[in-house]
Amino acid sequence: MTTTSAGVAPKTGTTGRVRVQKFGAFLAGMVMPNIAIFIAWGFITAFFIQTGWTPVGVLGGFGTTDGVANPGVVGPILTYLIPLAIAIQGGRMIYDIRGAVVGSIFTMGVILGSDSTMILGAMICGPLGAYLVKQMDRLWDGKIKPGFEMLVNNYSAGILGFGLFMAGFFWLSKLFSVIVTGLGNAVEFLVNHSLLPLASLFIEPAKIFFLNNAINHGVLDQLGAQQVKESGKSILFLLEANPGPGLGILLAFTFFGVGVARSTAPGAIIIQFFGGIHEIYFPFVLQKPILFIAVILGGATGVATNVAFKSGLTGPASPGSIIAVLANTSRDSYVGVILSVILSAAVSGVVASFFLITTRKRDLANADAGDMSAAFAKMQASKGRDANAATAGLFAGASAPATAEEAEATIPAEVPGSGAGTTTATRVENIVFACDAGMGSSAMGASVLRNKIKKAGIEGVTVVNKAIANLSGDEDLIITQQQLTDRAKSMNPTAQHVSVDNFMNAPQYDEVVEQLSHQQ
C-alpha cells in the first residue's frame, strides 16, 4: 500500500494549481449541498408559474386573491432561502455553527439592501462573516473569566453581526447589485447579438481542466436563477451541463478509436450520458489535445441551437445527465433542448471522428492506446482531485506515479502479511474516503471498501466519505487520490494516509482489509 510521508512538502510548481483547486472546491462545497433547493425551486417554477404546466396564482405569483396581488413563492425562495442556505453552508465551512450564524446575518443585510438576487453576495458574505467572527474570537481566547463565556460569545457575535448587517445593507448590497447587473447585461448583449456560443471557447476547455465549479456555481447559477425569476427559464443552465459534446467524443472513439480507448468508450457513454458524470470523457480529450476543437465546436453548436429556439431550463441540471436536463427543461423548450444535445453530439462526434481517422495509422503504429493511463493521470493532475470512481474503474491502468519526484515522495511501509503496506502504529476503526466535494466518487469508493470489509467478516470499523475540508482530525485512516493527499494530511497529519489512483478498484483496498484482519 502506498502512503506519503508527513514530511513531504508539496512541489512549488503546484502551488498555483492547488490554490485554484481549493477555490473551485470551496465554491462547490457551498453550492453542492444545496442543489436540492435549486431542484425543488425549479420544479415549483416549472409547474406553478403562469406559463408552467399547472399554473397556480398563489404559488406562481400572478393574479390576485381577494383583491390582493399574489406574491407567489418562486421569488421569495430565490431571494431569501437559496442565498441564506448558501451563506450558512459557507459560514459553517469556515467556522462551524458560529460562523454560519454571523455569515447569515451579514448576508441578510445584503439581500434586503438590494433588488437583485444575492447568490453571489451570499457566496462572499457568508464565508467573510464567518472569518471575521473567527478572528474576533481569537482576540480574547482564554481571557474570559469563568461564568461570562456565554455572555461574551453571544453579545460579541451579535454586535459584529449588527455591524456587518449595516455594512451589507447600505454599502455592499449596492456593489453586488452593480456586479450582478453588469454580468446580466453582458449576457443579454451576447444573447441579443447571437454571440453566446462564443462562451464555449472558454467553458468547454475549462470543464476538462479545473474551472468548471468556479464558472458553474460562481457565475452561471447566479445569473441563471435571476433569468428564471424574470422569464421562467434560463439558457445559462445549459452552457456547462449539455451532455452532447462529451457524447460525441465517446461515440467517435467507439467507432474509430484504437485499443483500450475504443474498448472503454461504450461503457463510458452510459456513465456520461445517463449518469451525468462528464469527467468520464476528459481523458479521451487529453489523450489527443486536438479534440479540444471538437468539444468547443460541439458546445457552441448546442448553445447556438438553444439561442435559436429560445430554450432553457428552470433550474440547474446537476449532475449533467440527460435525465436531469430533461427533468428541468421548461415546458416550451423540449424541442430546442433535445435538438441542442443531438446536434452538439453530432458536431463533436464528426469533428473528433475526422481527427481519429486521419491519425489512426499512426496511433496503431505507436500503440497509442497505451496512452490512456497517462491521459487519465494527466487529467487527475490538472483537476487536482479524483476524476470520478466510475472514470477510475474504466482507466484502472494509471497506477504509477506521474513523475520521478512523485515516486520519491511515496514511502511504502510494512503491513503484517503484505509485501507493501501502510503503517500500523494505531488501531484503525474510522476510515474516511476524502475528495473535493465528499459526495460522488468518494461515496462509491467507500461503498466498495465497505463491501470488502463486510465480506471479510470484520466488525467494529466504520467507512464513510467526506470532503477534505470537513476532515475533523479523529480519522484513523484516510484514503485520497494522489493529488489530494497533501491537502488531506494538512487537515489530519496524525492519521494513516493511503494514496490511490482511483476510488473504484484500487489494489490498496485488499491490503487495508488485510491490515484490519490482523488487528481483530
Task: Report on this structure.
The chain is α/β, with parallel strands linked by helices and 520 residues long. The chain has 3 domains: 12-218, no CATH class; 225-366, no CATH class; 410-518, Response regulator (Rossmann fold). Helix content is 62%, strand content 6%. The chain contains 22 helices and 8 strands. A hairpin with a 2-residue loop joins strand 3 and strand 4 (418-421). Helix 2 (35-48) crosses helix 4 (74-112) and helix 10 (244-256) packs antiparallel against helix 11. The longest helix is centred in the N-terminal third of the chain and has 44 residues, at 149-192. It is globular.
Low-confidence stretches: 4-10, 384-424
First CA to last CA: what distance? 19 Å
How many E strands? 8
**Count of the separate structural domains:** 3
Shape field: globular
Number of helices: 22
Measured as a percent range, the helix fraction is: 55-70%
Structural class, from helix and strand content? Answer: alpha/beta
Beta percentage is: 5-15%
Radius of gyration equals 25 Å
Mean pLDDT, rounded to whole units?
82
Q: Strand sequence of the main sheet, in spatial order?
A: 6-5-7-8
Give the biggest sheet: 4 strands, parallel
Summarize the helix and strand pattern as letters.
Answer: HHHEEHHHHHHHHHHHHHHHHEEEHEEHEH
